[in-house]
Design a protein that fits this description.
By secondary structure, this protein is an alpha+beta fold. It is built from 3 helices and 13 strands. The protein folds into 2 domains: 72 residues, Ribosomal protein L6 (Outer Surface Protein A, domain 3, Alpha-Beta Complex), CATH 3.90.930; 92 residues, Ribosomal protein L6 (Outer Surface Protein A, domain 3, Alpha-Beta Complex), CATH 3.90.930.12. β3 and β4 form a beta hairpin. The model has no long low-confidence stretch (mean pLDDT 91).
Length: 191
């Protein structure tokens, strides 16, 4: 039996779950999300929790049991607390502004890079002035929302605008991400 799949999902106060036509719908203070359950699993709602069980003991059902439980748990967490991803922008002259629901970034191109916030996503930005300890850190960008997949996809789209380069480390990266640095030409010629 799947260790993750057999764990019940507790429903926090203010969160309601409904099961209709093999679709799990969860509503909470931040919004409403829906999940189409795979045919190998079933959901039961009762006693303030959701329990995901599988219909058979086939290999495919065992493989998808934990997946469906995790996706359902993400729905509950999203509508109750929400999700947040943070990115850091490194580079001299790079800037970030928030104009309404748009994120406007100056990333060293001849034009600004504009990212529109999809419905349910909010941007926050904090800019920094160069100091001796964070010489190249220009800004931090926070992407938050109640749909975990949408938060991750929006963060990936922002990071794709200027991936971190390996020589100076300039560009957008997730907070805490380590960028492998390469030696430049001058270090390679010293052989």
């Amino acid at each position: 039996m799947s260790r993750i799949g057999k764990m019940p999902i507790p429903l926090p106060p203010g969160v309601e779950a409904k099961l209709q036509d093999h679709h799990l719908r969860v509503t909470g203070p931040l919004g409403a999300l829906e999940l189409a359950l795979l045919p190998e699993v079933e959901a039961e709602i009762g006693d303030g929790q959701i329990l995901i069980t599988r219909r058979s003991d086939s290999r495919q059902a065992r493989a998808r049991h934990g997946l469906m439980r995790t996706l359902a748990a993400n729905l509950v967490e999203g509508v109750s607390r929400g999700f947040r991803k943070e990115l850091e922008l490194y580079g001299l002259g790079y800037r970030v502004q928030i104009q309404g629901s748009k994120l406007v970034m100056q990333l060293g191109f001849s034009h600004p890079v504009v990212v529109d916030a999809p419905p349910g996503i909010e941007f926050a930005a904090e800019t920094f002035t160069p100091t001796s300890e964070n010489q190249y850190l220009a800004a931090r960008i926070a992407v938050s929302g109640f749909d975990k997949g949408l938060v991750g996809q929006t963060s990936a789209n922002i990071r794709k605008a200027r991936k971190p380069e390996p020589y100076k480390g300039k560009g957008l990266r997730y907070r805490g991400e380590r960028v492998r640095r390469k030696a430049g030409k001058s270090a390679a010629q010293g052989r």
